[in-house]
Amino acid sequence: MNSKNIILLVDDDELDVISVERSLKKLDQDYELFTAYNGIEALEILKSQLEEGKGHLPDVILLDLNMPKMNGIEFLKVLRGDDKLKHLKVFVMTTSGEEADRKATEQLGVSGYLIKPLNFNNNTKRSDSMDGFVQFHLRKILASKGL
Questions:
Q1: DSSP labels for 106-118?
Q2: Which residues have a Cβ under 8 Å from the Cβ of 81 and sit 6 or more positions away?
Q3: Residue 140, class by beta-carbon neighbours within 10 Å (0-12 exposed, 13-18 middle, 19+ buried)?
Q4: Can you tell me the distance from the alpha carbon of 136 to that of 17, in angstroms, rounded to the nearest whole number?
Q5: Which InterPro entries match (predicted)?
Q6: What is the C-alpha radius of gyration for the chain, rounded to an integer number of angstroms?
Q7: Looking at residue 134, what DSSP letter applies?
Q8: How many CB atoms lie within 10 A of CB 72?
Q9: What percent of the chain has pLDDT over 90?
């Protein structure tokens, strides 16, 4: 069994990927980060883990909604329809505050919904919400793996 925590980040925005990577570095836990830039790539990563018999599926998936090729909601539908993958914990991280997106993801069994804040004064993304999520929620999820 792999003792390292596995996180799958599915996001097409390179700045968001960098922000998540920076926040994760502050964790005091060992983890391995896989990155996919759309839902199709994410499914390929997950299925390769199953096919190779590794069984090292992610402990948590961090999912953006607005992506090319296969968006986050389409990805969630496929994930929840697969008996080997439907149990995975998924946290949505998106700029979308749309009620329809929240309801759709809630119906698809997400563990949480985090709106990526933007600082419109200097057009840079704020990392404080991501840091808070990593330090308070993600740390707890990854720590529970050892139970």
A1: HHTT-SEEEEPPE
A2: none
A3: exposed
A4: 19
A5: CheY-like_superfamily (IPR011006), Sig_transdc_resp-reg_receiver (IPR001789), TCS_response_regulator (IPR052893)
A6: 15
A7: I
A8: 28
A9: 35
pTM, whole model, 2 decimals? Answer: 0.79
Rounded to an integer, the average pLDDT of 53-70 is: 87
Mean pLDDT, rounded, of the chain: 79
Strand 5-10 to 60-63 pairing: parallel
Q: What CA–CA distance (Å, rounded) separates 57 from 90? A: 12
The pLDDT score that the predictor gives to residue 8 is 95
SS3 26: coil
Question: What pLDDT was estimated at residue 129?
Answer: 57
Domains and CATH numbers, the chain: 5-146 (3.40.50.2300)
CB 70 within 8 A of CB 40: yes
What gap in Å lies between CA 85 and CA 61, rounded to an integer?
11
* Residue 39 to residues 26, 46, 77, Cα–Cα distance (Å): 27, 11, 10
Please compute the mean of the pLDDT values over residues 114-130 and round it to a whole number: 53
Q: 119, 67, 68, 69: which is closest to 93 by C-alpha?
A: 67
